[in-house]
Design a protein that fits this description.
single chain, five-stranded mixed β-sheet, four-stranded antiparallel β-sheet, elongated, 11 helices, alpha+beta
Length: 368
């Protein structure tokens, strides 16, 4: 048992305390308090909170002390002394008469038999719901751990709290239909707000990922409400580059995708709006996973060089560029950009923060 001075006291046992409490008008009542811890070098303490949990009603009045009731019947009284309530019992009164002082005394405790054993189910709860096999192993090496003999009935019994605590969500099945051509389904998600705003006061970035090619396009925003205007820009650029039409847009049902203006535009242009179940990012993994991957890359690249945090957009643009060209090496289709069919050109790739990339940083600062 932990005490206020950060010392640990050893509990010698658990038992039942019996005594006779004194009531008004010279009456008395015998009471028994169960599950009392026997700790040496510790004064008798009775928790009002635990009494209330067991159905006791506690009534405290200034100058009158504390009164304990159960089902409307007075069970005991206590007077306050040194900011503690002393339960009025016959044993305490006899002790005070002999010593001539008004002190609290130890209650008479009738502990359980030393040979008494407790069930494995009780030890299972006491030890934080560990396995029954661990309990049987512990009782051989732990002093004072008395366990009832193992029975087949207890083995078949299952702890409902353990079942409830180990519940987990089943894995999500793969979608039955996957895209078979470019722009058949676009996955989109907004990430942010980022802790540090860029030089252009941008804290969000918006990703559009084609399901078939996994090509990702990113935009950076000051507010989530700008998502609609960047979608218009993405649609015009992607459809012009590929000669295809966007057929469906999958999002996480966020407010930036569910505005009347956005939904009306999708309906007019024949684009199907697919919304995932709220608070279920697993259904939009193609858009959600790149968010984390890109941010991990951004943090790694900025950590490797002395780049101010306000330039996080430059690192994010670099990560998106490298992601697209990395996928191009294994993709079944060639990358399509606004400038035509693209190929992976590794000769133009420099390490992030390299002095040879300073010109590119200077050109990008104005729009970041």
């Amino acid at each position: 048992m932990n005490v206020a001075d950060k010392h640990n006291l050893v509990c010698q046992g658990i038992g039942t305390v019996e005594d006779i409490v004194c009531l008004p008008q010279g009456t008395s009542r015998k009471v028994a308090i169960e599950n009392v811890l026997h700790v040496e070098d510790c004064r008798n303490l009775l928790s009002l909170g635990q009494l209330m949990e067991r159905g006791q009603e506690v009534k405290i009045e200034p100058g009158m002390g504390c009164h304990l009731f159960k089902a409307g019947v007075l069970m005991g009284t206590a007077k306050m002394q040194n900011r503690l309530f002393l339960l009025d019992t016959q044993s305490r009164n006899r002790q005070n008469e002999r010593s001539g002082r008004n002190e609290s005394i130890c209650f008479k405790a009738e502990t359980d038999n030393k040979d008494k054993r407790w069930s494995q189910e009780l030890w299972h709860r006491r030890l934080g719901h560990i396995s029954y096999d661990s309990i049987r192993t512990m009782k051989e090496v732990v002093v004072g751990m008395r366990v009832e003999k193992y029975c087949e009935k207890e083995r078949k019994k299952r702890c409902e709290d353990c079942v409830r605590g180990s519940l987990s969500r089943k894995p999500f099945a793969h979608p039955q239909h996957t895209a078979t051509k470019v722009l058949e389904r676009i996955h989109s998600d907004v990430c942010g707000p980022v802790e540090t705003a860029s030089l252009g006061k941008r804290r969000y970035f918006l990703l559009f990922t084609d399901e078939y090619t996994r090509y990702t396009t990113g935009y950076f925003m000051q507010h989530k409400s700008e998502a609609f205007y960047y979608f218009l820009e993405f649609k015009a650029d992607a459809e012009k580059a590929t000669g295809k039409k966007i057929q469906s847009l999958r999002s996480d049902s966020g407010g930036e995708y569910q505005s009347k203006k956005f939904l009306d535009y999708l309906r007019i242009h024949g684009i199907w709006s697919e919304c995932t179940t709220p608070y279920t990012p697993q259904e939009n993994g193609i858009a959600e996973r790149p968010n984390r991957t890109l941010m991990n890359q951004v943090l790694s690249m900025m950590s490797s060089v002395s780049v101010p945090k306000v330039l996080w957009i430059l690192a994010c643009e670099t990560a998106i560029y490298l992601r697209n060209h990395r996928l191009a090496a294994h993709s079944r289709v060639k990358l399509h950009t606004s400038s035509g069919v693209g190929k992976c050109q590794t000769s133009v790739i420099n390490e992030f923060g390299d002095g040879r990339s300073c010109t590119g940083y200077q050109k990008s600062i104005g729009r970041s």
